[in-house]
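Q: what sequence does this backbone want?
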């Protein structure tokens, strides 16, 4: 049986709001040639993808059913410490930003955020 072809590294987008997921997917697709853009609507699906391939970047919402973005970050950093995590949230507070740092979130973006800020973060991470 022939070897499976190597998968491209992936950027995982984790968001339970379909409209935001579509916007993020379009932005990442236009910005990141050579990476698979994987969209999921929860933390468990994101972790399943990370188990399958190299994932240099996860962009996740904070407030999601089942597992919030901080819990997801903890699980990611435990299994894939080199993966960078961008946490986006509509519930931005100084306390949440502090907690995000404690959970080893690499970048914290309160919604709404300028898309060019996210673009710059992605470029920096994927260098």
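A:
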């Amino acid at each position: 049986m022939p070897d499976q072809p190597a998968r491209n590294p992936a950027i995982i987008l984790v968001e339970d709001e379909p409209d935001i997921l579509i916007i993020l997917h379009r932005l990442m697709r236009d910005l990141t040639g050579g990476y698979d853009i994987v969209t999921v609507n929860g933390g468990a699906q994101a972790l399943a993808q990370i188990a399958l391939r190299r994932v240099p970047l996860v962009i996740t919402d904070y407030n999601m059913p089942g597992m919030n973005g901080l819990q997801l970050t903890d699980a990611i950093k435990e299994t894939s410490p080199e993966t960078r995590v961008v946490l986006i949230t509509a519930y931005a507070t100084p306390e949440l930003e502090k907690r995000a740092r404690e959970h080893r979130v690499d970048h914290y973006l309160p919604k709404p955020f300028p898309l060019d800020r996210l673009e710059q973060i992605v470029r920096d991470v994927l260098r």
